[in-house]
Amino acid sequence: MKINGIDIGFGFTKATNGEESIIFKSIVGEASDIQFSLDIVGNKLTDNFHVALDGQHLFIGKLAEQQSNVRLFTLDQARFISDFMKAFALTALGHLTDEYVLLNIVSGLPVGFYKDYRQSFAKILTGSHEITFHKPDGSSEVKRLKIDEIRIIPQPLGSVLNLLMDENGTITNWDLARQKVGVVDIGFRTTDLCVLNQLQYEERGSTTTDTGMAKGFSIISRKLREQCGVNVELYRMYTAIETGSIKIRGEEVNITKLRDQVFANAARTIATDVDRLWADDWDMDAIIITGGGAMELAKILQPLITGNVIPLKHNIDARLNNVQGYLKYGRHLWDRAEPNTSLSASERQNQPEEKTNGPS
Length: 360
Known about the structure:
35% helix; 11 helices; ten-stranded mixed sheet; alpha+beta; Nucleotidyltransferase, domain 5; five-stranded mixed sheet
């Protein structure tokens, strides 16, 4: 039995088995025949996810963005769970596993969606699945996965667990475990706020807001449409956001000033939400800023939050903080579990009768 952590987000799907991690954009598109590719172009498999699943051929992630005529992307939670999640999850898990594998997985949902969607999430993924990977060289590989158990937790807790536990799922940071910790998890669609007090989840201080990176992306996209007459899809803006410029019809458009204004507004909104929600939590020991959006907003947001903010490590990808915590939690749950030594009725019948010696 293998254990994987997986975070299926609106912006990116992330997964890890402890030895390898994967991140790809949460985009799916119809598959089409690609007649030619230059041999000088690297054929990295994670950039070329062509899968067959449930009778459909699909391009996933970067391949869908570049090659599909019809590309599908959503920020609607119900549709994301019902129409998109399975393809993203099985692509990630299949890539990280052997040809046939029994899996237990830990994943998360935004705090505000946890109650309504955790059962449907688990129902879709639990059980046996088959996914075929069609590779750039023309070969294909079938992966058969049986997902035995799924543990779903409020999404931001992954980042706390990542700090609390070592790679084996053992709690090593007992100072943090005894504290009251707030988490600000900035995602693409949402920002989650939650509180863990001496390892107890506090409902009162936990919520989901819609101030994710997508809102800022939408503002910038709308300005570009007004200025250049081109509708730039949100999932095509990551590089422009990172570099501060985008090339449209051969012309370089500088968006640095607009981006910085949008991000500053987003940081102020999140800080206001934090102050309002945690007004009674003046005894907070530490605050963690995490999530993919933290890579852009943390440096702006940190000075706006009153309290002991744990700084991000700059040598890691913050998008993996939750998923690494999920994996550690999975190992805590299942690798450390006592083996079931009890026998079934049929097994007991087949056991040899124990002989006893009478008194001498």
